[in-house]
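Standup notes
- DV: blocked on the single-chain target, sequence here:
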Amino acid sequence: MDKARIHRLILDKLAADLQLLQRAAQTAYEAATHAENIAENKYDTLGLEASYLATGQARRAAEIKQALGLFENLNLRTFDPARGIQLSALVLLGAEDGSEQLLFLGPEAAGLKVVDQGEEITVISPRSPLGQALLGKAEGAEVTLTIGNGRQTFEVLEVH
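- DV (later): unblocked, structure below
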């Protein structure tokens, strides 16, 4: 796995998401401030709803912009078994049912998915329960998470 290529895919995806959200926020802002959407009575809420939408989209765009900045400044490190899993680690996790998932431990953008050579990679952050549990672990380590009323155990199969 080429971690630098995966990092580039994450940057590209964040940039594309940011561009899309900025356009959507601008469109919602224009709808909220358009003369035709001025409330004619207390039940006419189209302009108000559009302003709420524009505010939410602008807030989400700011979050993506922050994540993009953090990823642009992310120093890709080679895995050091003495330090264990750290930020920028690419981790292959195996579940009890035999399924596997590829994770990239990033500073933000948890849940973002990119595909590299047919492999789906999910970004997790150190703030997530799984990200916290993985920090400092090495290949072969087991990680157990309590999710709701159940427990899930994973094995760290590979770290890059």
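- Follow-up: The chain is about 40% helix and 25% strand.
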